[in-house]
User: Fold this.
Amino acid sequence: MRVAVVGIGGVGGYYGGKLASSFPPGSEHEIVFVCRGPQLDAIRSGGLRLYTRDAELVAHPAIATDRPTDLGVVDVAIFAVKGYSLAEVARTMRPAAGPGTVIIPLGNGVDNDATLGRELITGRVLNGLAYISSHIEAPGVVRQTGGSLKIVFGSPGGETEPYRAIAEMFKSAGIDAELSGHILRDVWT
Assistant:
């Protein structure tokens, strides 16, 4: 699968870093980062350094860009941007989203799926949430400081079977991921 992690701040840096370190360029999954500014420059020059409570790693995505048009259509787009930027960032990601693209927001908001569906126009939009405390410590450096690190994602319609391979990818990267058949209840909780 070709997976775009959109927003490499605290949340996207943690989960994107785990994915990119587990699936380096040339692996079965291609992990790409969409970010900007000093964070992008630092990742391009030396990778993303991720400090967790248990480990330190350096992740090198297959591509790091601020231009979604560079990506072509991706299989999965994980949105880890602040709620106030979600609509704007979604519009910039339109060239990378096709009818089969699975969209997963990790911002803790109950209507992120509606915002993404409206702005992206195409794709299979899920909803999701993350239990994490993390932040950018310096350009190219993300530090995780708390939380259970679990993510929960799923289709608002309750279907799970089409998304099992994504859950398995997360788990293969050491991410505690739950594919929920009741995501609306989960995000409200």
